[in-house]
């Protein structure tokens, strides 16, 4: 996630308590990243990350602070040692999005759907900071 944000032009900090820290138009963004390898642990990992983000936002001096929970479910979507093979980068992006949406519909309670609003934030879907601002919305004037 940090490399995706960096490639999009954000100044990323990895030397803090949260996994990734960056700002959008001066608004602090705290990101916690979790790699889930079992369906049984999915809810627990998301809940723990949400608690961490909530704590970071609550402790921030900026009332506009935002948090992101980034969850890697690739092991759940493609278990085993098989490579995920597609002919083109666009086909890979499409197929990954399709599998993620199927997974979300099948496994996530509706109460988690807002947390997955950023599921399409992938290295292939966003390439500039303005695209990320469009995705998140510019909250600097909120």
What's the arrangement of secondary structure elements?
Blueprint: H1 2-7, E1 20-24, E2 27-35, H2 42-59, E3 66-72, H3 74-77, H4 89-107, H5 129-136
Overall number of domains: 1
What is the percentage of strand-forming residues?
Answer: 5-15%
Largest β-sheet summary = 3 strands, mixed
**Secondary-structure element series:** HEEHEHHH
As a whole number of angstroms, the C-alpha radius of gyration is: 16 Å
The shape, in one word, is: globular
Give the count of helical stretches. Answer: 5
User: CA-to-CA gap between the ends?
Assistant: 26 Å
Instruction: Provide mean pLDDT, rounded.
Output: 76
Q: Using the coordinates shown, work out and report the CATH topology.
A: Trna Endonuclease, Chain: A, domain 1
Q: Assign the CATH architecture.
A: 3-Layer(aba) Sandwich
Strand order of the largest sheet: 1-2-3
| Overall number of strands | 3
The secondary structure category is alpha+beta
- Summarize the amount of helix as a percent range: 25-40%
Low-confidence stretches: 113-132, 137-142
CATH class: Alpha Beta
